[in-house]
Amino acid sequence: MNPAPRRRRAPQLVLLLVAAALVVAAALAGRLDFLSRPDPVARPAGAPAAAIDIAVLVFREGLECILVLAAITANMVGPRAACRRPVAAGAAAGFTATLVTWRIAAGALDDLAASMPALNLQALTGLLAILVLLVVMNWFFHKVYWTGWITLHTTRKRELMSATDAGTRSMARLWWGLALLGFTSLYREGFEIVLFLQSYRLKLGSGPLLSGVIGGLACTGVVAVLTFLAHRRLPYRQMLVVTGAMLGVVLLVMVGEQAQEMQLASWLPTTEIGWLSRWIPDWMRLWFSVFPTVETLAAQALAALIVLGSYLLARDQVHVRVGAS
Question: Do residues 113 and 203 lie in contact, with contact meaning Cβ atoms separated by under 8 Å?
Answer without folding.
Answer: no
